[in-house]
């Protein structure tokens, strides 16, 4: 294949995948905003966790999409399978823009929203494996890491595109109009992107390796069985998950989504400024996907991926503490001089709140402190007393929001990040560093997974570990990290989740996985 043809394949595959990630990440970006639109009121943290749970639902179903569409891709073809996935994704996203909110139809609103998120997750579960396999099977052996790294940029570019469109809408529309109907516009735009994507992909030819495999009758008749119930392929699926994609997934979502939520929810930075900072870090970091893909063609895929996991695990605590220091120094100073102690015995975390959920006084106090971005210590209740909250030298008995707000005000709590005190340069340095980690683990991963499995079951075999690693380990990160922080009263405690998973992948990858860059993927056996 000529370089011109290679560029056409990369461009067409990547462009459609960018649009599909855009569709998927619209909800992710607006998850805190959707908490007030589609979930019952009464506890902001519980509503936020419900919004994150819906966000996570789209990720949890991705492995099932990988099974359905991966099998179809190995039986019918790469091209036609990811044509189907992009139609399902675009239609589901467009439908979100038409959904009535909780105030209009009650509990049916979150049910419909979850259903559409599940359809999005199924579609994305089939999209990535198809695009990565398609590009890899067109690329020459010595440029496979470079060629597939363009596919790896699509998730970040889709996220950037979502941030840009949402940011423009929030700038153009007054806050009340955006909350009322303006939020629908980014979702409705996906119909235009869908038509364009289908047109581009219809002009592609099938993968040459798949065509030769079908012509020679060497395809698999049961890709699921051959992938997951035959040794040694099932061993490689498990090792790819635990030793590579799980760590890659948590590093990716920590550096992009959890960083965004930490800036806006915990550090009280306004949404537009946070979007601009994250968006700029994405733009600066995106070329490094290509760099690490190119580098993996020369020094290997695995060592770059595992190095990214290890460095991230070691540095996440100081990096996020650095964000607090440089973004909201007032909050850091306040937390240092104002100890907060909650005395209570019946605190719970309601991850899936419903209209029938009953919140205790302790739940409400904990919710109030968590959404205020404040760490607190929890101790057993004093005999004969309910929840008692000590904020510095102020003491508040029971659940009394007005009294708690007054106590914070009296002790000098900064309600928002002071933009005049934000150290934008150092904040960008930290965000770009975390973005570099993302590019290290993600840039070479497609080539690594493609090379790990034989052609006849490649689509199925690579899709499942990728989407469990990213959809389950990575997609659950905002939900679990937020719940862990709320449960412990420590705004940084949720970081233990990505640290433990990334460390696990580093250890398993070093011990049990081997380099793949010299493998010839044209072999059909």
Give a quick set of tags describing it.
single chain, 525 residues, mainly alpha, Growth Hormone, Chain: A, Glutaredoxin, 4-stranded mixed beta sheet, 24 helices
The percent of residues in helical segments reads over 70%
Specify the CATH architecture of the largest domain.
Up-down Bundle
Give the helix/strand class.
mainly alpha
Would you report the number of β strands? 4
C-alpha-based Rg, rounded: 24 Å
Determine the mean pLDDT.
Answer: 86
| CATH secondary-structure class of the largest domain | Mainly Alpha
Count of the separate structural domains: 2
Written as H for each helix and E for each strand, in order along the chain, the element string is HHHHHHHHHHHHHHHHHEHEEEHHHHHH
Strand content: under 5%
Spatial order of strands in the largest sheet: 2-1-3-4
What's the total helix number? 24
Tell me, briefly, the overall form.
globular
Largest sheet report: 4 strands, mixed
CATH topology of the largest domain: Growth Hormone, Chain: A
Give the N-terminus to C-terminus distance in angstroms.
22 Å
Name of the CATH superfamily of the largest domain: MFS general substrate transporter like domains
Low-confidence stretches: none
Please, could you describe this protein's structure?
With 525 residues, the protein is mainly α. The chain folds into two domains: 3-328 and 419-512, MFS general substrate transporter like domains (Growth Hormone, Chain: A), CATH 1.20.1250; 331-410, Glutaredoxin, CATH 3.40.30. Helices cover 73% and strands 3% of the residues. It contains 24 helices and four strands. The protein has helices at residues 3-38, 44-60, 62-75, 78-96, 102-105, 108-138, 144-172, 175-182, 184-188, 190-202, 208-215, 223-228, 233-266, 271-285, 287-299, 302-327, 329-337, 361-371, 401-410, 424-442, 445-452, 458-474, 477-488, 496-512, and strands at residues 340-343, 377-379, 388-391, 394-397. A four-stranded mixed sheet has the order 2-1-3-4, covered by helices on one side. Helix 3 (62-75) crosses helix 6 (108-138) and helix 3 packs antiparallel against helix 22. It is globular, with a radius of gyration of 24 Å. The protein starts with a helix and ends in a 13-residue tail after the last helix. The model has no long low-confidence stretch (mean pLDDT 86).
